């Protein structure tokens, strides 16, 4: 195998993606086959060529400049066009103050609404409407921290009316907009610090779900994160949820439906959603995580979003490792990360 041009990712990672026919890498590079004179996308279903007959190219023009033609089975040019269409749709949604209809996005990209919706969800992990709502909520959170008036903040974020914001935010913010603006004032957070086989663990939850899970921290750190919330230790209703969390820590992946109350930017929430899609016992690199979230070049940002996770184990950021397979960093130390991975591997 020869590397014909500089790739935007490590060669070993590209080869591994090609070997497993990983669709999330389509559009990031192409594979040339000298014996047939064609180039393929990473997910091509055709039989894999011998390594000595392969060449990796960063993009289609590079492969074409080498005299190769597109594979008629996997149609790599279509993958590149799909990626550009998704990027155009993301730009259109991000640049619009309010909701953008599928008909407008379809006209902007030249795709049918149904096809655009399918490739958008596959690339981003959300539908265009879901992505738009997440983006508006992100803007609302930012505006709530700046504006004196909640209504002004809601309108600045792109909502036509406050009622529309409340409808979209009620299941996602975990607290009212005014409480969010005042640093959690009026919100009750129940908490407990308990011993586990991985060390002392802090667990905290609002009425909607777990908002903090960490190791080696106490209630003081919780007060720093939620300075105006009412912090209440324990509670009968909280006890059942706490038992589920402890069981999940001792056997990661056994209870994926524990409710969460987490908040982040639209990008962070896409990364967290992708983390929860990684099966227990498997790992991903930061590059794979960024690609799965629809932003293959945002590897560093994916790492930052991974580190911004407030609920260890339940959002399994420990399943992300370095591209060479080594464990890498972890907020609570590599020993805990390795222990979690080992438990999942031996389930």
From TrEMBL:
Entry binding sites for Zn(2+): 40, 44, 71, 74
Keywords from the named record: Activator, DNA damage, DNA repair, DNA-binding, Metal-binding, Methyltransferase, Transcription, Transcription regulation, Transferase, Zinc
SUPFAM superfamilies recorded: Ada DNA repair protein, N-terminal domain (N-Ada 10), Homeodomain-like, Methylated DNA-protein cysteine methyltransferase domain, Methylated DNA-protein cysteine methyltransferase, C-terminal domain
Entry note: cofactor: Binds 1 zinc ion per subunit.
UniProt keyword annotation of Transcription present: yes
One Gene Ontology term from the biological process aspect of the record: methylation
HTH araC/xylS-type domain boundaries: 84-183
E.C. number(s) listed in UniProt: 2.1.1.63
GO molecular function list: DNA-binding transcription factor activity; methylated-DNA-[protein]-cysteine S-methyltransferase activity; sequence-specific DNA binding; zinc ion binding
Record has Calcium as a keyword: no
PROSITE patterns: HTH_ARAC_FAMILY_1 (PS00041), HTH_ARAC_FAMILY_2 (PS01124), MGMT (PS00374)
Catalytic site: 40, 317
PANTHER family assigned to the protein according to its UniProt record, in alphabetical order: BIFUNCTIONAL TRANSCRIPTIONAL ACTIVATOR_DNA REPAIR ENZYME ADA, METHYLATED-DNA--PROTEIN-CYSTEINE METHYLTRANSFERASE
Family affiliation: Belongs to the MGMT family.
Name this protein carries in UniProt: methylated-DNA--[protein]-cysteine S-methyltransferase
Organism per entry: Croceicoccus marinus
